Each structure stands twice: as structure tokens, then as C-alpha cells.
Fold these 3 entries.
Entry 1:
Amino acid sequence: MTGPVVVGLDGSPASVTAAWWAAREAVDRRLPLLLLHSWTTQPLNVPVPQEALSKQRYGGQVLRRTEAELLHRHPGLTLTTELVSDPAAEALLAAGETASLLVLGSRGHGSVASFLLGSISLHVLGLAHCPAVVVRAGDPAVPEGWRPSADDRGDIVVGVQQNGPTTAPLLEFALTTAQLHRARVLAVRALPVSSLMTHPHALTEPGDEAWQAAEHGRLGAELAPWREKFPDVELVQRIDRGAPAQVLLAASQHSRLTVVGRRRHPSRLTWKLGPVAHAALHHMPCPVAVVPHD
């Protein structure tokens, strides 16, 4: 992909953290970065009168300040800004038609490992044409300003519940990103506890080694073509029993990025995120990428 990395910037701490994450990603991917601000869709706590001119001035200041900070840190970055009057969700979805990646910020809520997503973010995540990443405000994995990133974040975790075209875009995105960052990919699959009742080894111990070996062999065969396609990326597999969202969350406690999928929708009037994507977006302790698939 050659389109830009696009980040929605409204001046909030969450959007600034997202911009720092997006800038680093753009540099690593050798792509331009676009900072997009909708002056008609600003945070409720913006300390300016509600006149249109004041909103436009505020938006311009936010873009210029963030642009200067990012270019100071990444002098080789190709960066443009855009101040638009379209609603934020509409503007971001339009930019996503040609973007390689959309990046959104999310306020922390409750525990440290929790997101608070607004209707704009959920709308964009449910309809974006390209992969979209949500970054939590103050995420220690993001090298914001002159603060280095946390050094305990390593793996890129991807959920692979089933083989075939549904999983392919997720693995492609995860492995490509890992190759850029020289990271390891952890492919995670959850098996429901009820599967024990239908498995040939169900009458033996639940942790039956033969049963586990068979499941790992099946997943290994599915991942074999990807290991050949990305020979320089370490691809590790993990299978646990439990609900998919819980298994993925447990595997992502120290990851630098978690990748989940969602189905494409034929109409912008009908869209939704699945339960695993919802759980990941609200509870993962790291940035979350939502990758559309057929």
C-alpha cells in the first residue's frame, strides 16, 4: 500500500498520542502522514467560543503545533495537514478510501487497560475501507515527545479463529507490521470448552497431550504458508481454551499491537463490530488494529 497514514487529530491528549504513534508508523512504512482535523467536530472541553471562526483558528493551531512537534522528532517525515468542515467520521472515512492506515485516539477509562470509545470512533472502525488502529491516551508503548516507549512490549498478537480468506488479511497485516518492526507474531486461537465433548480424546484428561498436539498440528499447517512468505519473521502459535475475547486479552498483556478483524459491509447504513473486536477495543492494554475482511 502506498496511501498515507491518516490520523484524526482533535487536540485531545488521546489524539495527540495517536498522532505520535502514527508518525512512527509512517516513518517505518516509508509513507506520508496526514493530520486531519474537523473544525465542526471538536472536543466538548475546547476552551474557545462556539463561533465558526474561533473553531477554525483552534483547529489550525492544533495542526500546526502537532506538525512542528512531529517533524522535530522525525525530520525526514513527509507530513501534510488538512482542516475540514465535514463531520469527523465522514472526513476520516473519505480519507480511508485511499489511505494505508487510519489512526484514532481513545481516552482511558477505568482501569489502565481500558479504552473509552466515542460514537465517531466506533462508526469509523465499523466502516473504514483500510485497517484502522486505536491508540489509548498516554499508552506507554508509544514514544510520545521525548519519552521512550516501554521496553516490555514486544509481540504483535493476532487472533486466528478460522482458516481461509477471513484470516488472511489479518495475518498479512500482522506479519507485514512485524517485519517492519523486527517483532515476533503470536497467532492465537481459542477453543471452546465444549469442544472437549466432541473430540475423540474427550474421555481422557482435559489436558491430553495427543489432543493438544492435534490442535497445534492443525494450526501449524494453516500457518505454514505464512512462515514461508515471511521467513524472517518469527511466527509463534498459541491455543487456549475459553472465550475468544478472553484468550486474546490474556495473550496481549505485553504486546505492542493486537490485530482483530471485522467483516466488510455492503452499505454504510448497516455495520457492526463483532464481540471479539468490541472486547479488544475496550480492554486491550495496547494499540488495537481492526482489519476489514470479506
Entry 2:
Amino acid sequence: MIRKCEEHGYFRGEECLKCGERGKFMLDDEHEMRLGRFVSGVLRHFPDDVGLDMDAQGWIELDAFCEAMKKRYKWAGKMRLVSLVESDPKQRYEIDNSFIRARYGHSIDVDLDYPLYDSDVLYYGVSQEEVDMLLENGIKPYRQTYIHLSNSSQRARQAASVHTDNPVILEIDAASAAKDGYEFLCANEEIVLSKEILPEYIEIADD
């Protein structure tokens, strides 16, 4: 459930964690899920299917997006869209003035313009079955434009646990890769994006 606290903005749950107020109702769980699927699909995978133009950096005009959204869901106005974006704990989307885009997760070709991430190491969680192949061949995007890396081994384990019960955490020598010209983009506070990780920069993390 998404609600709006007048003092602290949009939040998910029954009450604002900062002040305990219930706030104004915005979306129930069912409508949040339905709208979230539409937003994810359009901003990450098929803007053309709903007649929307996306620029090279993944941006779509907000008003045009809202028009397409309301054709599908008459109850889904701009305020409810903003509530979905701003309350998202995973920071999957962003609104900048009159444009909206997904921060990560694209299967279509985009050239995201995030700041470079400066770190010595990054992490990537994989299944037991994938380890040897990735250590030998490196990591490349699968069904996505970018690889999603984590800035902590704990976050990498959480992300990988969605797909496998006993993930192995790979450690990426980001400092050496960056010196060799590879770019790491800071998508949000936890996720870092890259186009390719060669095997010489990968090893199994020491838990």
C-alpha cells in the first residue's frame, strides 16, 4: 500500500516510519502491482508498443507517458505514478522535471548517463552452476543491456537469492578494470551498472 505523509512524502505501508502518521491513501497493493508492471514494461522493454518515444538515455516525456498509462488504467493519474516512483525502496525509476525513465533493468538498447562509480571492488551473486563458466568467460548481460553489480557482498547475496538458494559471491576488481578503460555507472545507492566484466577482474569473494 502506498500513502502520502504531508510532512515526509510518499511511503509504503500503513504508517509513515518517520512520524507514525497514516497519511493520505494513494494505491492499494493490487493497483500498485498492476501499475508497477506497466511502468516496468514500458520504461524497460516496450515503449514502442504503447506509442511512446524514448531517447538514447532512456527518458520518456512524463505527460505522454501519463496519457498512455491512463488509456490502460483510467484510475492511474500522474500523482499515483509519482507516488509509485518516489516510494519505491529499490529506486527503480526516476522523474526529472518533465521526463521519466527506469534507472536499470533495460532489455532495450539505452546509453545511460549516470556518474561513474569510484570503488576498488564490486560484487555479483551467481548460482553454483554458473561459477566456473563466469570465471572462465567473464560476465556479460543476459536479457538486459547492462550487468547489475552490487556495492556490497551482502546486497549481492540478497539479489542472487531471488534466483538461487545458495549463491556464490564473485568479487570484481573494479579499480583495475576502471584503469583499463571499463566504466561502472552508479544507478542508485546500491546498484552499479557495467556492459562487460572480463575474467581477469573476477574472483570468488572471501566470505
Entry 3:
Amino acid sequence: MKQHAGTRALVGMLALALTVGIAVAGCAPAAVDSIRPAAVDDVLPIYADIVVNENLAYGERDGQPLLLDACQPADAAASALNNGPRRAVISVHGGSWRSGDKADPAWRNVCEWLASEGFIAFSVGYSLAPGHPFPAGIDDIRAAISWLRAPEQVEAYGYDPALIGAFGGSAGGNLVSLLATSGAGPWDVGTRVAAVVDLSGPIDLTTAGLDMLPDGFAQRQLDYLGCADYDRCDAAAAASPNHQVDPSDPPQLIVHAEDEYIPAAQGQLMADALRSAGVPVTLETVPGDGHSLELLDDELRGQIVEFLRGALR
């Protein structure tokens, strides 16, 4: 366990727009997936008085532990920031389902930022394709929710197990949207969640969505789906959140940029499916070509916090 003291938030926020597009694997082009500036750790915000408990095992796959990091305010009284009970939020990194890391500086920043707002945040690592194709990743995310609902974690971190939300970007946005639409019924049991924030998530992984995606992304999807082609790929619909929607699903906040890598039309597909089922949804399209965490300016951070506090109550 470690505690960050002091803050370089101002420097970090000014540099974030320049660095996070490289720091975050997201669903970015192959040349960008695993490259980031050596100095990125020095420019991302470090939030004061946040405790980070790293590499907690929430399950295992192929004999290897599945790990997450927990971020929380050092002072329990900080839960007052939530104007009520303590809530838990998982964050799910991007990387075209094949790369990325829960502890990447940009995603560690997300974990600490959510904790600085009074949430108990959990940055989740999950199995990656092509070695572990669908449904391995979403099964791991569901396992993390089950772990969060166990009495041991609830007691250790002091959150309400009925109030669990999810935040994801790019491939992580797809996964949290699929988490939200998987299954049916109450949001406070099993692997259900009560609110989802999706930044730049690819939504329809079937052939119907291909013309909305950039060149070369179809092969990444096939690798993730474990399919040789789309003609014989039942996993494509199963991995598409808009194909799983029902009226019992939780509210979502979906955000895309106007000219980004994963087009806003993908978010529109999800919003249309949710609205048709009577599920509350907010779709925001912001100017520019930012992708995933690149969208996180002060205004959007405030909107996300307001959404999560309102939905998790």
C-alpha cells in the first residue's frame, strides 16, 4: 500500500491532452498501442491523500491471478464528497482488447481521480486477446464485480455493495457497456452494476458496424472475437452491447468526439438501443478528434462525477 502526498495536478492537466493519446493504448492505431513518453509519470496528476493498494487478486485464469488496484481517500470522512453512502466504481482500460494495463499512468490517474471525488475506485486488469479471446475479458470483469460484492471487500473498503458503477474507455468502454447489458434484473446483485460511463467504446462488433470503424480495425475485432471471419462468428453479436439491451439495464453516459478514431455513430447505436428499451441514457458528442481518456477535460470530469453520484444512490 502506498500513499501519494502532494499534487502536481496543474502540470498534469496541462500535459494530459498531449500525453494521454500516446499513454493510453485505447483502440488506437497499432503503432501507438504500446508507446508512451518516458516522462509521462512526471506529468500526470498525482492526487493528494489517495491510498493505492496494488495488485489485489480477484480471481485467476490458467493458474495466473487476475489483479486489480484499489484507490480510496486516505481519510474515511472524504466519503462526504459523495453526499451520502460510499460508492464503488471500477475502471476498465482500453487497448483494442489486446494491450493496455490497469496501472498505466493514465489509467492510474483515473483511479486516483475517482477516489479524489470520494468513490472507492478499482482499476481492473483482465485477460487479453488473442491469447484469451472473447468472452475471457468480460468474464474477468464480471468476476471482479463478484469480488467487490463479497462481504470481505465490502467490510474492508466500506462501500455499499448495491452502489457499484463502471467506467471504461475505448475497448474498456465496450466491456463496461456489455457488463451493463449482460443479464437482467436488479442492479444490486450478482454481476450487475447500477451505472456505466463509456468513453469512445466500439459498440456493434457485427458486420453492421464495420462501416463505422477505421481501416484495419475489423481484424482487431476478429482477433478479439476468436473468429477467422465474420461469416461464422456468433461471438460478434454476443460481444456487441447494443444486441444485449433490455429494459432492466442501468443508466449510461456515453461520450465520443465528433471526429475521433471510434466514430460517434457507434455511441449513437448504443443510445438508440437503450432509449428504445426505456433505459436512461445521455449521449455527449464533443468537438475535436480526441479518443477515450483524451476527452477528459475539467467539464467532462465534472459531468461524469455528477452522473455517477446521481445514478449511484
